[in-house]
Amino acid sequence: MGKFEASPPDLPGIPADSQAGGEPVPVASGEYAPLIDACFAEFREAVESGETTWTEPLITALEEMALIEQGALKPASRRAQQALRIGRLSLARRLIGIHLTKPSLSPAMVAGLLGVSLRHMHMLFEGTGRSFSQTVTAQRIRLSGRLLRERPRLPVAGIAHASGFDSLATFYRIFHATLGMTPGEFRAHRAQTAAAAPLPPGPRAPAPLTAK
Fold first, then answer.
1. What is the CATH number of the domain that holds 150?
2. What is d(CA 185, CA 181) in angstroms, rounded to the nearest whole number?
């Protein structure tokens, strides 16, 4: 595939106006609708962030799942199974985001929501560069960093709880190991940086998502 454009090619059986831009909306209503919707959500985020390494597999998976929905591709075929694997991975990551603030979030919980075995759920993350637990931790650290910037009066213990950590000590340990500073140091550094920095000329692009 050549240079990636801002929107995917027309996908069979899916309205063109749902394929790019605007707010995420359900785009399918069949058996595989949750997987298709999750892939579309990840596609939108990749386009908005400028991260294109994950877009081509997503487009291919969307095309294949649309064919499965139409009965033009057998679900048991190798092509279909690969597309469904990508769809389940996308949905697993969406489910992690939805339940991120719950300390009870676990591989078994997401596997149950996906309707797959625990082993199969772990296999979905193989090849992404991050295990399930690493994915959860990365998202929680990202969330805690945002809260530390946006909620300067919220105590660190409240940040930890709001980010899904059930232990303040665990939060401090993982945060320091990931960013090389404590949450308090991170907050102070960001406050100093914001005070010293000039106002940007316009809206800034969001940081690229890590997606492999």
1. 1.10.10
2. 6
Q: What is the pLDDT of residues 113-147, one digit of tens each?
A: 999 999 999 999 998 889 999 999 999 999 999 99
Q: How many domains does the chain have?
A: 2
Name residue 100's amino acid: L
Give the separation between CA 84 and CA 86, rounded to whole angstroms: 5
Residue 52 lies in a domain: yes
Task: Please answer whether residues 100 and 139 qualify as being in contact, where contact means their C-beta atoms are separated by less than 8 angstroms.
Answer: yes
Residue 64 lies in a domain: yes
Report in angstroms the alpha-carbon separations of 211 from 52, 83, 90, 93.
9, 16, 10, 10
CB atoms within 10 A of CB 210: 16
Q: What backbone phi and psi angles, to 5 degrees, belong to 199?
A: -65, 135
Instruction: Print burial letters for 104-116: b (CB count within 10 Å at least 16), e (below 16).
Output: ebebeebbeebeb
Prediction pTM value: 0.74
Full domain range(s) for residue 85:
16-98
Q: Distance (Å, rounded) from C-alpha 89 to C-alpha 168?
A: 30
Question: What count of other Cβ atoms lies within 10 Å of the Cβ of residue 74?
Answer: 12
Domain membership flag for residue 107: no
Last residue of a domain, one of 98, 122, 152: 98
